[in-house]
Amino acid sequence: MNFLAHAFLAGDAPADQLGGLIGDFVKGPLPAGLPADVAAGVKLHRLIDVFAETEAAFGRSRARVSPPRRRVAGVIVDMVYDHFLALHWSRFHAEPLDAFTARMYRLMDANAALLPPRLLEILPRMRETDWLGSYRSIDSTALALDRIGVRLSRENLLRGSGADLVADYAGFEADFFAFIGDAQRFAQRWRRER
Using CA atoms in the order 7, 146, 119, 194, what is the torsion angle rounded to 10 degrees? Predict the structure, then answer.
C-alpha cells in the first residue's frame, strides 16, 4: 500500500528496501526460502507498521478521516503519507524521485524469484504506470485508494476517499511532517541495533 514510504524508511541497503517493498504481501511466518537480510527488511516493515499505529501524528491523521471511513483510516493515511513523501521528496533524499523509483523497480525485477506471487503479478503494471512516483499527484493517490477498495471483501469504504485528503490537506501535510521524522529515527535506530 504505502510502498514508497517503506522503501524510503528501509534505508540504503537493497535487501532492506526489498523487504520493505514486499512486506505487505508477506503475511504470517516468513517464507523459509527468504534470505535473512531480506527477512530483516520485512521485519522492519512490520515494525514500522506497528510504530505508525501508536505514533501521535499518525493518530491525528486517522482522526481527520471522515467518520464513515474510519475503519479504513490506516490505509488512507498510509497512502496520503506516500503522497506527501513523493511531493516533498527532495527534502528527504538526495537521489531524484524518478531515479529512486526506477531503482526500486529494477531491484524487484532482479529479485523476481523472491517476490510474493501477488506482487510479481502486479509489478509490470506498477512499473509501467510508475505507482511509486505517481503518488505526487492527488488524483493518482485518490485513484490508488479507489483501486485498493475494489479488492476489499466488504463494502468499499475507500471509494472517493481522496476527498478526505482534499478536505483537510494542510492538516494531513502537517501530520506527515511530524510523523516522517519520528519514523526515520525509529527505523535508523532499529537498523543500528539489529
Answer: 30
With a CB cutoff of 8 Å and minimum separation 6, the contacts of 137 are 83
Q: Which residue has the cell 528496501?
A: 17
Q: Is the dihedral of CA 137, 138, 144, 146 positive or negative?
A: negative
Q: What is the pTM of this model?
A: 0.90
Whether the predicted pLDDT of 4 surpasses 90: yes
> What whole-number distance in Å separates Cα of residue 171 and Cα of residue 64?
8
Number of domains, the chain: 1
Domain containing 77 equals: 3-193
DSSP-derived secondary structure for 2-32: -HHHHHHHT-S-HHHHHHHHHGGG--SSPPT
Reported as a single tens digit per residue, the pLDDT across 95-137 is 999 999 999 999 999 999 999 999 999 999 999 999 999 999 8
Cell of 189: 535506530
